[in-house]
Amino acid sequence: MLCILFLIISFTGTFGQVLECWDRERKEMVAIKIVRGIKKYREAAMIEIEVLQQLAKHDKGGNRCVQIRNWFDYRNHICIVFEKLGSSLYDFLRKNNYRSFPIDLVREIARQLLECIAFMHDLCMIHTDLKPENVLLVSSEYIKVPDYKSSLHTPKDSSYFKRMPKSSAIKVIDFGSTTYERPDQNYIVSTRHYRAPEVILGLGWTYPCDIWSVGCILVELCTGEALFQTHENLEHLAMMERVLGPLPQHMLKRVDRHAEKYVRRGRLDWPEGAASRESIKSVMKLPRLQNLIMQHVDHSAGDLTHLLQGLLRYDPTDRLTAREALRHPFFTRDHLRR
Questions:
Q1: At what angle are helices 103-122 and 301-311 packed, to 10 degrees?
Q2: 39-58 and 103-122 helices, crossing angle to 10°
Q3: According to the UniProt entry, where is the signal peptide (predicted)?
Q4: Domain extent at residue 13
């Protein structure tokens, strides 16, 4: 790069750092992802660059995915220069004390997220790591509005107010785990809380694993909390059954050798196989999906629940595609008439 970059702030992650810098040539703020000089991270970075370039070639308006500006290799570190965006949906929730988003904002974010995934799937790409951390608001600007649900707080208390993004515009980031469709993809993908059942059970995965992740993200935006807060496979599957009903027999019969221990006599080995009483309690406290949504959504709860039931179908062949989801009444119904 010919321009001179000045460090403003930095973010450190497993892969390396993201620096917010001033591009003196373009006269704009940019974000630079500096990848650790380790073989596997360098390889992932080169995959991400190739994917970003392909996406940019087809996404003429640049409205769906983060835009790559440039890249260079500096002292064995791959450095990728991106347009600067706002905070991630996760960071926004965290700074907002994990307060849920209004349903109309969730609708707009869901529409854009599904449009991005439909666009990627049309190009035979699977993101494989969709989560609130990898969905960024385009703008950092927000306003403070009264939080009427915080009835225990007085108006003088700052927690009586919550933040609302000024714009609902989002873009998807982090394509280091993106893959093209191939037969027999069985390795583990997705961050734990957003991992589809077919991945855990070793049944192979393809485009629908992204759709499952979208469903988990939408629930989190509506409630403020991750739907499946667990770090263990059997507990994760038990949580799914608690929220969505029993796993299909035909899927449990086909589990790979690594997942056989989660199944006993044709059903999930739960609660018998639970690691602890605390694990059983954490599963038992979860409500059914419909009840969970009704607790947090004031209107459109029926349409949203029905959409989520389509996004979170166990059998990936029955799960809605991104294009099908975009035609759902949650998006197409005239909500202004409610």
A1: 30
A2: 100
A3: 1-16
A4: 5-83
Residue 129 known to be catalytic: yes
191 shares a domain with 78 = no
How many other CB atoms are there within 10 angstroms of residue 282's CB atom? 17
The residue annotated as part of the active site, out of 23, 129, 147, 174, is: 129
What number of other Cβ atoms are within 10 A of residue 6's Cβ?
A: 10
**Residues 60, 194 share a domain:** no
Q: What is the pTM of this model?
A: 0.92
pLDDT tens, position by position, 67-116: 999 999 999 999 999 999 999 999 999 999 999 999 999 999 999 999 99
- Which tokens is 319 given? 């799960």
The number of folded domains in the chain is 2
List CB contacts of 53: < 8 A, sequence separation 6 or more: 68
Assess whether 50 and 107 both reside in one domain.
no
